[in-house]
Amino acid sequence: MSEERMLEHARPEFAKASEDLQKLGTREAVVNFYARHEARLGTAMAASTQTVACEAGCSFCCRQFEVVAQPVEVLEIHAHVSRHFKPDQLRGVIQRATQNVAARKAATEQERLTLRPTCPFLVDHSCSIYAVRPSVCRNYHATDKDNCQKSFDDPFSTWPTSYVEELFDTAMGSSAGFKNAVTALGLDTRDYHLSAAFLEAMRDPACAKRFKSGKKAFLKATAPGFNG
Ligand code: SF4
Fold first, then answer.
1. Which residue among 22, 46, 79, 222 has the highest number of C-beta atoms inside a 10 angstrom radius?
2. Whose CA is nearest to atom 4 of ligand 1?
3. What DSSP state is assigned to residue 142?
């Protein structure tokens, strides 16, 4: 991991995101961030000598761990789904997300380590919210699909370690730049489990209001690694 390469992307992203957040608001700011993020990754990919093994139809990442997202990302997904999904699609997402939340609740701490929740937005091995998928889904580029399979098959494994380093550094730096700009405005940037946070955003319009006023956006969804 190269700290220098991460900073190279974190600094300009922080400046641009801060400007967008002030002038355009959080919704447009996150959409603009995703566009810049993808452009940076495209440039890094073109310059890399390594080959990315990720391809359409491969979904180990989407079935391996509980996907997490920040409030600004969850609220954008909620807006996208409300605008574009048909009622039966929405029912499917709600059903799958509800199953994930129930399975997590019923599991012990130890059992949670081996849960393999499928992201509720995965349909036929494809992401149904690709344009607004959270940054965590954009940031890992594997070089060996077998390694992903092994990691998926072994419930006690950690994340596969074969990935394109330049892309990883670029992605981490760019994501950190955006996150720090949102944090600097005093807004919630905790990571929440996507299934639970999405359900809460669907059911409680106050989530968006709490987020805008700098409060903890989600009250029921859990925030991994955060004790607040
Ligand atoms: S949001 Fe899309 S890319 Fe991310 S885990 Fe879910 S289905 Fe996969």
1. 222
2. 137
3. B
Q: What is the per-residue pLDDT for 111?
A: 86
Over range 99-116, report the average pLDDT. 90
What own/partner pairs with CB < 8 Å and gap ≥ 24 does 16-20 have? 17/177, 17/178, 17/181, 17/182, 18/181, 18/184, 18/185
Report, as an integer, the average pLDDT of 126-135: 96
How remote is the CA of residue 56 from the centroid of ligand 1, in Å?
12
Neighbour tally for 143: CB within 10 Å: 19
CA 204-209-214 angle, 5° bins: 125
CA of 137 to the centre of ligand 1 (A): 6
The full set of domain ranges for the chain reads 1-50+165-187, 53-163+190-223
Pocket of ligand 1 from Cβ distances under 6 Å: 62, 67, 119, 121-122, 127, 129, 133, 137
Q: Can you name the residues that pair with 68 across neighbouring β-strands?
A: 193
- Calpha distance 77→128 (Å, rounded): 10
Give the model's confidence band at 228: pLDDT under 50 very low, under 70 low, under 90 confident, else very high.
Answer: very low
- Segment holding 122, helix H or strand E: strand 122-123
58-86 per-position pLDDT tens digit: 999 899 888 999 999 999 999 999 999 99
Stretch (H or E) spanning 127: strand 126-127
